[in-house]
Amino acid sequence: MSDPGTTLSKHQVTCGDGLETLLNDPQDPHDPYETTETHLERLLGRALNSFDLPDSTVERLGTALAHSSVLHSSHHSASLHRTTHRHTYLLADGSALSLWELVHNAGRDGTEQHELYTEESEARLAASRLPTGALPGRPAERSDRRLRDEDDDLELLSALLARPIPAQPRMYVPDNSADHARRVLRRAENADRPGERTARRLRLAFAHHITQAFGRHCAVEGGRDAGFTLYEHQFLLLDGSEVSLWEVEHTATPDGRHMCEVYEDEHAARGAMESRSRVR
Q: What's the whole-model pTM score?
């Protein structure tokens, strides 16, 4: 849904060969003479996860001659403001490369945060993980959640342990899958995360598929709301075998911080969710 209040700055950027491109970047400092190099430095500098970009992508961006930025999508509610922008670069070899920027206010203090992704699907997945209710550090609106009784809590725990959703056809996508596996393992914070043996196997991944197996908000100790999401990252290896990583994302941390945990099997991942979600 587009936001009628959004103002897009529009500048003509001229390259050495006379190529012109229209720039629509809401974060642009309104400098009509900003070079593509400066734009890239600003984009990478403000992204919280720029270190996750593949080295090959950053190297290619170093040859960018021109760029175009457009607002791709926008969502605004009482508690969440989220926009996605596509930044496309013309490289010296004549090819084009796009980065997808997710901008949101879902941080602890509600300040604007920026994230970068090389694929639209990754940006959409990251956007879907943002909380839609009251943000950490802000007073939550009164709701019936505060009136949950023991039956509601038992229902929640039963849901966490429920059978997995029916299997769906796996549509593997060859897309820097080994690097995707590396990033999933890198953000895991649990001590019992997969070890080096699994990491070595996943270096052979050439395609992958992501499935959301579970997602829900619930009350945790202290009466706080916390979100739980379970993803299966399925990888197809060069030898024809398949490997899955089960990623638990939740905010059931002492300070409400977002946390990622990764496990090698679904049973362990659901067990972790159960232990994190215990109430009263």
A: 0.45
